[in-house]
């Protein structure tokens, strides 16, 4: 197990971020400091209390990742004052969670949070990690970075690409850079997605019977993610069957691709 001193996770008030925070606290106890951020005060305080009950020292930051100055000041304070050495830019939104109805709104809002917010989470730490000669920078992208969804897929492909480049650039400085690409994980985001597009498709009729095959729990997701981060896996794609499926679908001839995408209902339907 890696000797983490401090882990900063954005989007820790629910879902994947919450599960990761709790796993770090459960496995490292009083040996780990956690800096957790989100916007929902009650949910974030509940996550903090759970982590504290495992012995972890926790600081919370309640702000929007689009508030660049506040975000960057928080990151710098956590890295300098608490020796944070792992930063997970996990906060994210989709068309479904934001309930956007036009391409313009959805493009701007998703890129502000998923791309600019994620980059601004990790960049303040780079000069300090370089001086230390160690550190780990992580982004939660998505298997959607491999296929459709205009704004969401593009925003996740953008951060995946950026972190792949950072991995090469920062490797000589002893800094590890990793990208997480989950398929469907059972969180508030998945609830929002499945209430919308997926339920209107052919797959929807199968969902009740194959839920466990389609959805990974957030606890399972955090086990897979933290194991991958410990082994410095460049891109942690899971579950494997969904990864192989999207990789296969992306390589099909166009006509077959269109058919397979329509089955999954991944096309946005804005006017
Ligand atoms: N669930 C999936 O199927 C799935 C699949 C692939 C990738 N992902 C990615 O996994 C990450 C976590 O999502 P999740 O599934 O765990 O969904 P979730 O339960 O909705 O959690 C999203 C987290 O991001 C935070 N957040 C959203 N917008 C924010 C903003 N503007 N400023 C600050 N925090 C913000 C939320 O905080 P508040 O609620 O406190 O605002 C929450 O803690 C996202 O990047 C998502 O794109 C999810």
TrEMBL record:
<comment type="similarity">
    <text>Belongs to the short-chain dehydrogenases/reductases (SDR) family.</text>
</comment>
<dbReference type="InterPro" id="IPR036291">
    <property type="entry name" value="NAD(P)-bd_dom_sf"/>
</dbReference>
<keyword id="KW-0560">Oxidoreductase</keyword>
<dbReference type="InterPro" id="IPR002347">
    <property type="entry name" value="SDR_fam"/>
</dbReference>
<keyword id="KW-0521">NADP</keyword>
<protein>
    <submittedName>
        <fullName>Uncharacterized protein</fullName>
    </submittedName>
</protein>
<dbReference type="GO" id="GO:0016491">
    <property type="term" value="F:oxidoreductase activity"/>
</dbReference>
<dbReference type="Pfam" id="PF00106">
    <property type="entry name" value="adh_short"/>
</dbReference>
């Amino acid at each position: 197990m890696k000797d983490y001193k401090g882990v900063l996770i954005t989007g820790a008030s629910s879902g994947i971020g919450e599960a990761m925070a709790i796993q770090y606290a459960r496995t490292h106890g009083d040996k780990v400091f956690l800096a957790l951020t989100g916007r929902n005060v009650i949910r974030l305080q509940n996550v903090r209390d759970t982590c504290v009950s495992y012995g972890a020292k926790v600081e919370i930051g309640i702000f929007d990742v689009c508030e660049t100055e506040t975000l960057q000041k928080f990151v710098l304070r956590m890295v300098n004052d608490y020796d944070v050495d792992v930063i997970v830019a996990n906060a994210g939104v989709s068309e479904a969670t934001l309930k956007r109805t036009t391409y313009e709104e959805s493009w701007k809002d998703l890129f502000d949070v998923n791309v600019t917010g994620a980059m601004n989470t990790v960049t303040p730490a780079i000069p300090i990690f370089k001086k230390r000669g160690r550190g780990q920078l992580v982004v939660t992208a998505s298997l959607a970075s491999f296929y459709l969804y205009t704004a969401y897929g593009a925003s996740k492909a953008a951060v995946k690409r950026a972190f792949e480049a950072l991995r090469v650039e920062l490797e000589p400085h002893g800094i590890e850079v990793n990208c997480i690409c989950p398929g469907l994980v059972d969180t508030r985001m998945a609830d929002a997605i499945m209430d919308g597009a997926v339920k209107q498709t052919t797959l929807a009729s199968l969902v009740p019977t194959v839920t466990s095959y389609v959805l990974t729990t957030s606890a399972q997701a955090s086990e897979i993610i933290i194991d991958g981060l410990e082994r410095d896996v460049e891109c942690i794609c899971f579950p494997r069957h969904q990864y192989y499926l999207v990789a296969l679908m992306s390589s099909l001839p166009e006509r077959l691709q269109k058919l397979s995408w329509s089955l999954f209902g991944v096309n946005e339907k804005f006017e």
